[in-house]
Amino acid sequence: MFKKDISAGSKSKVKSSAQRGIRSKVVDQYPLLEPYMDEIMPKKEQLDLVKLPDRVALYTLSSTPLFFQHMDDPLLPHLSLIHRYPSCFPRLRIDRGAIRFVLSGATLMAPGLTSAGGRLPNDPQDGDGEFGMEELEPGTVVVIEAEGKENACMVGVLKMGTAEMKKVKKGQACEAGHYLGDGLWGLDLR
């Protein structure tokens, strides 16, 4: 979505009633973020809406990006927020071979997740249950981590469920919403 460098459009203040709505939408979509909501979006702070190309709305707190949304799609967290609260989102892991494709903006394919270095929920190789026990459905917002790396490298929306990925082991798994080094990552909000 953000393969090229982008420039911020108009910036406007979000009304307090709309801010409460966004806050409740975030808690509904990402329930594990609820204990941290006062840190992420303090009630007394002003949330800003920055318009981006292709009808994308970016919600920021001063110059800190929090969430973005394309038209009426689900709210997706910015990677800087994911890096602060990594355990609050459904996570999958790609193998080393898929990293360069993900960081170039390609759609994530199932072999990157189902091969030896990749991890899906309820994976027998995931001994400590770090990646969860529930299978994820298509349309779920997921955070993609890379084998051998500390921070997440992408956030996107699943195109196929994790149970189907384990069976089929091919096809498009996840559509890239935002990845390290893309236009949204390099956006200057000051």
TrEMBL record:
Location within or outside the cell:
Cytoplasm
Q: Does the keyword Cytoplasm apply?
A: yes
Q: Which GO BP terms sit in this record?
A: formation of translation preinitiation complex
Q: Which InterPro entries match?
A: MCT-1/Tma20, Pre-PUA, PUA, PUA-like_sf, Uncharacterised_CHP00451
Tell me which residues make up the PUA domain. Answer: 90-181
Keyword Cytoplasm tagged: yes
Cellular component terms (Gene Ontology): cytoplasm
The record ties this protein, via SUPFAM superfamilies, to: PUA domain-like
Q: Which Pfam families match?
A: Pre-PUA, PUA
Name the source's superkingdom. Eukaryota
**Keywords for the protein's UniProt record, in alphabetical order:** Cytoplasm
Per the record, the major location class is cytoplasm
> One GO molecular-function annotation for this sequence?
RNA binding
Could you say which protein family the record assigns here? Belongs to the TMA20 family.
Q: What does this protein do?
A: Involved in translation.
Which NCBIfam families does the record associate with it? unchar_dom_2 (TIGR00451)
Full protein name: Translation machinery-associated protein 20
